[in-house]
Amino acid sequence: MPAQADSDEPLDGIDAVETDAGPPRAGKTGAIKSQKDGGADRRDPERRCIATMQRRPHSEMIRFVLSPEGQVTPDVAARLPGRGGWVTATREAVDQAASRGAFARAFKRQVKVPADLGAQTEMLLVRRCMDMLGMARRSGNLVVGFEQVREAIRDVRPGCLITASDGSEDQRGKVLGLAKAIYGPDLDAEAETAGNSRLPPVAECFSGSELGMALGRDRVIHACLKLGPIAHAWMGELGRLSGFRRVWLPGWQPVSSSGTGSRDEKLI
After folding, report:
1. Is the pTM of this model over 0.85?
2. Which residues of the chain register pLDDT less than 50?
3. Are residues 167 and 230 in the same domain?
4. 108 and 54 belong to one structural domain
5. Which range of residues forms the domain containing residue 102?
6. What is the CATH number of the domain that holds 35?
7. pLDDT tens digits, residue range 48-104?
8. Is the dihedral of CA 79, 82, 84, 90 positive or negative?
9. Same domain, yes or no, for 217 and 177?
10. Which residues contact 75 (CB under 8 A, 6 or more apart)?
């Protein structure tokens, strides 16, 4: 049963938290910081997290709105009408916002916070990732199948490799071995690095059935996204999801523009 929070609940001495006036205009979300100068991309404005009070770009946060009944609702696409409060895209931050009365304080009214708000947010992020994969397949930007993926790797560096979490270790090793031989150094199999800029990142956070459902098949074990805007956008969504579950295969995380690995390392 949702818990209620009064708008005058204390937030450990913090004087004010902010909400937006409505969803961002089209094209304002999903952009990544410029890799040329390391600065913030104007298409990815920052907001203050109502839980941590730290400023982050939209692409690293989750927007929340209130339903007509006053229930806190995740708006992972940042499109729902009404005022929105932004929270850092991690389960810890969402739980903190719920437990410390941050939503009530941000919206300046009593709110209902679902007990499973973190789980709801995770599932909506998963659905968004699955929908994007379906769009990539329909646009010809996704390759599916063991032999097809290996052929694609030989042809050009993939934007992102996808391997089912319950797939064959032998087949996975053959796919990754080929990618490593072509695009990366001969890394020690037991030495997990924070990421390698030459190796394609590898996502292993979905089961074969989940991938199959998104792509119109019974099961999908191996897939790869072609390098380009769609792969870039999908990895941005996986970056948000990585605050709720482990997303990347250890040692195959994407490297950020600052040269650090993903937040997945905290979940391993």
Report:
1. no
2. 1, 3-15, 27-41, 187-195, 257-261, 265-268
3. yes
4. yes
5. 3-115
6. 3.30.1230.10
7. 999 999 999 999 999 999 999 999 999 999 999 999 999 999 999 999 999 999 999
8. negative
9. yes
10. 23, 62, 63, 64, 65, 84
